[in-house]
Design brief:
Elements lengths: L1 E3 L2 E12 L4 E13 L2 E2 L2 H10 L3 H18 L7 E6 L6 H11 L6 E6 L6 H13 L2 E8 L6 H6 L4 E4 L1 H4 L5 H16 L3 E4 L5 H10 L3 E2 L10 H5 L2
Parallel strand pairs: 3-5, 5-6, 6-7, 7-8, 8-9, 9-10
Antiparallel strand pairs: 1-2, 2-3, 2-10, 3-4
């Protein structure tokens, strides 16, 4: 937990699961925000920080606080991922601070990029290469939703792509199955980790297995929980 701009921010973690060995393969760090003891709209809060040019400082504090929690609870070698906006990576100060904070955690660190606005893909590609040289992996989040398109996927050397829940919810459709199977083949060919988000039923799990998807995340497996609770599992 940490305080920022008068708001209490609680950190929770949602596990990612490997369907091959049925084990946790990593954690996604998320935040829950409270003001005056009442939960507030998190997306609105982040949007407000972004509009006030505070999102970079907030993100660094969030990541730093998460590393402290994980280390304190002996979750030292777990892969952990954080959500950021792609335009944050175009800020040299943010990137420099990210590289410095990265040294506080010895496990695998992944930044999940969500594109809320158009960015210079060439510049983004250069920054991604720099981060990867410092042992930071890059994931394309919310694929198949809004602006997260095939062009985004092809323009940057991502380590992982996360298929959005909106597509997983359409698994009953044959065209959706064909598209995901195509993605599985592409991911395998280019050594890209494919994760299905928002998995909420055994039926979806079975279908994803049949399509060759190895990594999943969603409420069917686990809801976001604290580092302290994860350490007890």
């Amino acid at each position: 937990m940490f305080l920022y701009d008068g708001v209490e921010v609680n950190i929770v973690y949602q596990p990612k699961y490997c369907l091959i060995n049925n084990k946790v393969s990593g954690l996604e760090a998320l935040t829950r925000t409270f003001e005056g003891g009442l939960k507030i709209d998190h997306e609105l809060y982040l949007s407000n920080l972004n509009n006030r040019c505070l999102i970079n400082d907030y993100t660094i504090l969030f990541i730093e606080s998460s590393f402290l929690e994980l280390n304190r609870n002996d979750l030292l070698d777990v892969e952990v991922s954080f959500n950021i906006y792609s335009n944050q990576l175009l800020d040299d100060v943010f990137v420099s601070k990210m590289l410095s904070v990265r040294k506080c955690y010895k496990g695998i660190v992944t930044l999940e990029i969500s594109e809320k606005e158009a960015v210079d893909s060439l510049r983004l590609r250069e920054v991604v290469m720099k981060l990867k040289c410092h042992n930071i992996k890059i994931s394309l989040d919310d694929f198949a939703k809004d602006s997260a398109t095939i062009c985004n996927l092809l323009s940057v050397d991502y380590d992982e792509v996360k298929v959005d829940k909106s597509l997983i919810d359409m698994l009953d459709a044959e065209k959706t199955k064909m598209f995901i199977k195509m993605l599985v083949g592409f991911a395998s060919d280019v050594n890209l980790k494919l994760v299905a988000e928002g998995v909420e039923s055994q039926c979806q799990v079975q279908t994803l297995k049949e399509l060759g998807v190895d990594f999943v995340q969603g409420y069917f497996f686990a809801k976001p929980t604290s580092a302290c609770e994860l350490a007890l599992v």
